[in-house]
Amino acid sequence: MEIPDQGDAVFRAVTFGDGFPDFVVEQFMQDECILHVEDDPNDVLLVRRAFEKAGIKTRIEVAEDGQKAINYLCDFEKHAPPRILLLDIKLPGKDGFEVLEWLRHQPALRKLIVVFLTSSAIPGDITTAYDLGANSYCTKPVSPEELLDLAVNLKNWWFGPNLHAPLQQDLASVGWYRA
After folding, report:
1. What are 33-75's pLDDT values in tens digits?
2. CATH (domain of 132)
3. What integer is the mean pLDDT of 139-155?
4. 176 located within any domain
5. What SS3 string covers the chain?
6. Are 43 and 146 spatial neighbours (Cβ–Cβ below 8 Å)?
7. 6 domain residue, yes or no
8. How far are the Cα atoms of 5, 127, 141, 161 from residue 61, in angstroms, in the given order?
9. What pLDDT is stored for residue 69 in this prediction?
10. Cross-strand partners of 22
11. Which residues pair with 25 in a beta bridge?
């Protein structure tokens, strides 16, 4: 059976119950990314440095506002969905809550891991984030050392023993086959 040519993507044939194989992308760590939705370039730089020091080798893509994050997540033609979405609340245009609410209504993306990384420690914001389906809620640390500790903890949990819900079947259902 011929496998679609998509450059460096690796495919495997799986059957989703109809007896006919579908081609599903096998993602590898080096092809994955983290989408960091953050409007403050200083915070973006600090997070990048902390993640590098923590040994997180996954590429970090940045969206400066909520609408750009949604556009990125919708653009299956250019890239795979991120492994993790790091999301701020206070953003220009659509805020982080609106992005998360939109995301959880997208059949192909609703299982994506969303970690809020925000300056807000307001109990109502924390409750809203979890009510909308956030996987984790972290306040932005005030020191580089605390940010490094946070990065190490994120690495140990989300890139360690914690198993992710597979997105492949959901992505295949909307015709997405590209890594």
Report:
1. 999 999 999 999 999 999 999 999 889 999 999 999 999 999 8
2. 3.40.50.2300
3. 94
4. no
5. CCCCCCCCCEEEEEECCCCCEEEEEECCHHHCEEEEECCCHHHHHHHHHHHHHCCCCCEEEEECCHHHHHHHHHCCCCCCCCCEEEECCCCCCCCHHHHHHHHCCCCCCCCCEEEEEECCCCHHHHHHHHHHCCCEEEECCCCHHHHHHHHHHHHHHHCCCCCCCCCHHHHHHCCCCCC
6. no
7. no
8. 25, 27, 21, 24
9. 96
10. 14
11. 11
Hunting for tokens 């259902």 — which residue is that? 173
Query: What is the distance between the alpha carbons of residues 178 and 23, in angstroms, rounded to a whole number?
Result: 10
pTM, 2 dp: 0.76
Q: Answer yes or no: is pLDDT of 7 > 50.
A: no
Structure tokens, 134 = 């956030």
Q: Distance between CA 126 and CA 100 in Å, rounded?
A: 13
- Domain span at residue 42 reads 29-165
Percent of the chain with pLDDT over 90: 59
User: Comparing 1-5, 85-89, 150-154, which segment has the lowest mean pLDDT?
Assistant: 1-5
